[in-house]
Design goal:
14 strands; elongated; alpha/beta; six-stranded mixed β-sheet; 11 helices
Amino acid sequence: MRENTIIEIKNLTKTFGEGDGSVVALEGISLEIGQGEIFGIIGLSGAGKSTLVRCMNLLERPNAGSVVVDGKEMTSLSERELRRARQSIGMIFQNFNLLMQRTALENVCFPLELTGTPRRECASRARELLSTVGLSDKEQAYPAQLSGGQQQRVAIARALATGPKVLLCDEATSALDPTTTQSILALLKELNQKLGVTVVIITHEMRVIEQICNRVAIIANSHIEEIGAVDEVFRRPKSEAAKKLLFPRGESTAAFTGKGRFYRVTFDGDSAEHPVIADMVLRFGAPVNIVFADTKTIGGRMFGHMILQFPEDQAMAERMLAFLDSENLRYTEEEFNV
């Protein structure tokens, strides 16, 4: 285990059901998450990511393997010890899970009440947290009177009530519109920086990972396929699962005639801000067809990728590829079923 690791999972397996009807949700999962990190876990629906995050606080108990959070082996704790350990692990959900008959203030007070905190101290702490998430004026509002974004802010305040070291976010922005998603992600980043809380983000949306996470684990078919820094995974995805998430195969080449081959060109940092493709076309006097293009900003740097159809003339195409080599651009040939 690395010195600053706060979550360590080793060889975790989780199955549902028994015998022939059993379903393997997770198999042989191992990963480490550092103190103060914003760590993303991304996968398509059914990949096992939500089960994995629920195993971190033992809302789901794994069949095998170990889960160590803040130095405690969660699977070996008694029920009483587990309840105490969960106080250092906050969790927020896709559908907020607020108590509808309680006000915003009362919702934030609830986990403190469960720990036996005096009522006056509960209210003081809850007001402080509602201020932190920008809802000082909504303490007497009920969930039905709040927007989705406001409800998620109350849920975040509630998750922080017991002063957790880890905040687990299970598809926390999936029910929100894009603008509200941006504000919630910005809030999570701010809380990470101000409080030093470790944030684990479960999502199926690459844009969430790009905006907020330091590192990411790609999960597919119940296994971790790839782990790395977000920018590194984007620039050099090693697994097919990562490539599918980063480069969806929704691009159509049907409108592009001719026999020229297709290449996916990846840009990062400075190369994404210079007209390399335009320079190539001007230099060789031969056009390329742009099938698809996308850019992203990760950690303040611009990244992007394009699918290009190169000229049918093989010699010209090779000269162009050599030019891309000289510009230190990565490219891979793509095949499409047209």
